[in-house]
Write a structure and sequence with these properties.
The structure is a homodimer. The first copy, chain A, is of the alpha/beta class. Helices cover about 45% and strands about 15% of the residues of chain A. The structure holds a DNA duplex.
Chain lengths: ~350, ~350
DNA sequence: CTGTTAGCGCCTTCAA
DNA sequence: TTGAAGGCGCTAACAG
C-alpha cells in the first residue's frame, strides 16, 4: 500500500497547469523572497565570504523557511564541476578495503565533499568503465586502486580535469599521485622473518591470484619475491606455491593449507597473502592437531585487527591501510585546492608485526 | 611531475578564445555529424527502440568516432531523473554489510543503473543527511538500513518521488517496501537452541549496542528476546549481559568473553550478537583452555562464511544477507518500472545453523 | 519515426 | 559587493 496511495496522489496533484507540478523551490524563489539577485543567493552557497553579512542573514532566513537546497545537477551542468570524490576499489568483500575506506572517510574534513564508490570486481575493464563514468561528472578527484590500469584508462585519467591518487601499490610512475607500498619488499620481509625465526621451508598461499588469465599484479609481485628469496635459501620449489582464482577468504585459506599439508609434508611454514588466508590456515592446523608455531609457522599479510586476537596470535606484514586511505584523501583535497604537493609519490612502507604464530618454543 | 606539467599545459591551452576550452563533444556535435536531429540522438540513448535502424547505425558510427557520452548532469537537470540507486548502510567495516552489498550488486541487472553508497555511521542524523542529498538528485530508488529513521526522514522518503526499500529489519509498517528479518524471533531461536543443546545459563554479548545514549534498535530487540526467554528458563540475570558501544569486532568479542568468564563462572554458553563477537569469544576460550563446546557453548549471529571454517565451527543464526540485498534491489527495480509489487513487506526469516560450537560430547 | 521549441536550475561573465 | 544576461547539454512536449 504505502506507495500505491502515494503515486496516485502525486499523479492527481500534478494535473493543474498553473502550479509547476509540485516543483521544488529554486534559487529564483529564494532570490525573490529575500529581495536579492539570484547571483547573491548563488554566492551565498558557493562563496559565502563574498556576500555581505546583511544579505547573508536575509538569505539564510528565506532558505530555512523555504527549505531550499541547490540542485546538484544544475550546479554540475553550469559549473562543469561536481563536489564529489570518486573512489574505485576492486572488491566490497575483501576486508582489506574496509580499512582503506575508513581512512578515506576519516579525512573527509572541511568541505562538503561527497564520496562515491565504485566496485571494479578486480577487473580493469570495469575499472575503466567506472572511471569513465566518474569523469563524465567532473568530480573533484579520483582515488583508484593499484597501478595496473589499462593504457586507455591511464590516458583518460591523465587528460582528466581533476587530480588522481592511486593507492595500495607504490609505483615510481604514477598517473598523478600515489600512496602505496612496495609489495615485493613487503613480501621479502615477511618471508625473511620466517627464515629468521628458524623455519627452513616456507610455502606460499594466495587467493584471487588471477583474473581472466592474467595474474593479479600485486600477487604476481609477491610471488616474485617468494621465488627470489627461496632461491637464495635452499631453492625455490614450485609445488610449495598454492593459489587459486577464488576471492581470498578464510575458507580458501583452509583448503589451500589442507592441500599443502597433504602434498608437501616437508614445508614447515607458510606465507599467506592475506590475513584471511592465514586465519583459514591456522584453523586447518588446529583441526589437524598441527601445532602452530612449533610444527608450522604462519605469517600473514595486511595485519587485520583479528590477527592480534586469534590463538595463537598471527604474525603479519602490516600494510598501513587506514593511513593509506587517509593520506590519499588528504593529498587529493589539498591538491584539488591548488596546493603544491611536494611529494606526489608516497611509499608508506610496511611493518612485520611479530606475534605468536612464528615464535617457536 | 605528472600533474604539474599537466596543469600548466591545461592553463596555457585554455587561453585562446575561439576553441571552447577543450570542450567535450555534445549531443549537438553528434547530431550535426550524423545529420539527424538532436532528439533522435537523445532517443538513441534513452529509448533506442523508438529509433529506426538506419538512424541507429548512422548515430552509432558518429558516437564511436567522436567518443561521445551523454552528460549525466544535463540529463538529470532536463529530465529530473538520475539513473542511480542510493544505498545507505550504517557501516563500511561491519562485515554484515559486505554480503548485503554483494547481493545488491548481483541484482544490478538489465538497466545501466549506478549504485551510490552512503555510510551513515550508525547515526540517524547522518542517515537523514545522506538521504536528503540523494533525494536532491532524483534517484531511481533508495535502499536504506533498518526501521529507525527519524520521523523527518520518514516523511522525506514518503514524499519522495522514488521508491524506497528498507532492509535488515522487518517491520509491519514500512515507509514503502521492506526486506528484513525479525531480530526478536531470530534471537529467541538462537538462544532456544542453546537450551535445546543442554546449556542452562546463557550469556549475551553485543558490540555497538548504543549510539548517543539510545540503544541500537536491533540490539535492543535482541536483548528483549534474551530477557524473555531466560525469564522463562530459570530467570533473567542482568550480569550475564555484556555489551559496549564500540563497533562489533573479534577483539571486542574477546574482551567481553573475558569479562564474562571472570565475572560469571556459572555461565555455560553465550549468544553473540554478531559472528565476529563469537569469533573473539571462541579465541578467548581457546586461550584460557576452556573447551568449546563442552565447557562453553557459543551461538553467533549472521552466519559469516568464516563460522564454518573455525575450529570448532561456530553455530550461528543465519540472516540471509546476500538474498536480502538481492531481493531488495530486484524489488526496487521492478517497482521503479511501475510493476505492482504484490508483497511489499518481506520477512526473509532466518535459520539456526547448528555447528560444533554447541554440540556437547 | 523524426524534428522543433522551450526550458530544467544554476553559474559564468561582465557590468554597475 | 551586487546584479543582469546568457548559456551549460540535455530532454519534455508538442508538431509533423
Amino acid at each position: 500500500m504505502g506507495k500505491s496511495t502515494k503515486i496516485i496522489g502525486k499523479a492527481a496533484g500534478g494535473r493543474e497547469g498553473a502550479s509547476p507540478r509540485k516543483r521544488g523551490v529554486t534559487i529564483v524563489d529564494v532570490a525573490r523572497e529575500a529581495n536579492v539577485g539570484r547571483m547573491t543567493v548563488s554566492r551565498y552557497f558557493s562563496e559565502p565570504h563574498r556576500v555581505s553579512p546583511e544579505m547573508k542573514k536575509r538569505i539564510e532566513k528565506v532558505v530555512k523557511r523555504l527549505g531550499y537546497a541547490p540542485s546538484p545537477a544544475a550546479r554540475a551542468l553550469a559549473s562543469k564541476r561536481s563536489n564529489f570524490v570518486g573512489v574505485v576499489i576492486p572488491s566490497v568483500t575483501n576486508f582489506v578495503f574496509s580499512d582503506v575506506l575508513k581512512g578515506i572517510y576519516s579525512a573527509e574534513l572541511s568541505n562538503d565533499h561527497q564520496i562515491q564508490f565504485g566496485n571494479a570486481h578486480y577487473n580493469p575493464r570495469e575499472e575503466e568503465a567506472l572511471i569513465r563514468n566518474f569523469l563524465l561528472q567532473n568530480p573533484t578527484g579520483i582515488i583508484t586502486t593499484g597501478a595496473d590500469q589499462t593504457t586507455e584508462c591511464r590516458e583518460l585519467l591523465r587528460q582528466a580535469n581533476c587530480r588522481v591518487v592511486q593507492i595500495m601499490e607504490y609505483t615510481e610512475d604514477p598517473i598523478d599521485m600515489v600512496v602505496g607500498l612496495d609489495h615485493y619488499q613487503a613480501t621479502l620481509a615477511g618471508i625473511q622473518h620466517l627464515y629468521d625465526s628458524g623455519y627452513k621451508k616456507p610455502g606460499f598461499l594466495a587467493g584471487r591470484s588471477f583474473h581472466g588469465g592474467s595474474m593479479e599484479p600485486r600477487i604476481s609481485q609477491r610471488l616474485e619475491a617468494f621465488k627470489h628469496i627461496t632461491s637464495k635459501n635452499g631453492g625455490f620449489d614450485e609445488s610449495h606455491v598454492l593459489h587459486t582464482g577464488e576471492p581470498s577468504s578464510a575458507n580458501v585459506g583452509r583448503s589451500l593449507m589442507s592441500d599443502l599439508l597433504d602434498r608437501c609434508p616437508e614445508v614447515d611454514s607458510v606465507f599467506c597473502n592475506n590475513d584471511d588466508i592465514a586465519l583459514g590456515a591456522l584453523f586447518e592446523c588446529q583441526r589437524r592437531g598441527v601445532n602452530v608455531p612449533n610444527e608450522i609457522g604462519i605469517c600473514g599479510f595486511n595485519d587485520f585487527e583479528i590477527s592480534s586476537v586469534t590463538f595463537p596470535t598471527l604474525t603479519s606484514v602490516c600494510s598501513n591501510r587506514f593511513k593509506m586511505g587517509k593520506l590519499a584523501m588528504e593529498m587529493l583535497m589539498r591538491a584539488s585546492e591548488g596546493e603544491e604537493i611536494e611529494q606526489p609519490s608516497v611509499d608508506l612502507g610496511f611493518q612485520v608485526v611479530e606475534r605468536e604464530s612464528t615464535q617457536r618454543k
